[in-house]
Write a structure and sequence with these properties.
By secondary structure, the protein is an alpha+beta fold. Helices cover 44% and strands 22% of the residues. 14% of the residues are buried.
Length: 147
Amino acid sequence: MLCPYCGFDESNVLESRDALEGKATRRRRMCVKCEKRFTTYERVENIEIRVIKKDGRIEEYQRAKLEKCFEKACWKLSEEERGKLIDQIEKKLLNYKSVEVPSSVIGKLVMETLENVDQMAYIRFATVYMDFKKIEDFKNLIKSLEK
């Protein structure tokens, strides 16, 4: 770990503890050369998931796409609340039977999550995800929520 003050590449770990609700490890370090202290965080960088698109292409999973989707559908929720919902979906994706997940599975997970959290966000997402062409489709969706 490079010291942010002098750039030296050796430091001693003074203290370690869980951070971000157990999703990261916080480490207090001291540079061996300049003896200044700094904090680092260690967390899982990438989720090893590939998405199978409708047209058969395969691409790497990108959390940013879900974040953008949730930002549009759930604009009333805080960034932290949206992040927690995405974390729930990612946990389910990590437990999927394969590392290659059809985009339809991800869409259904988003639908299930939104339906239980914010019905208006659910409707906003569903109208795009389900590619409604007729007003009848929209009416049927609302009727299904009323049940």
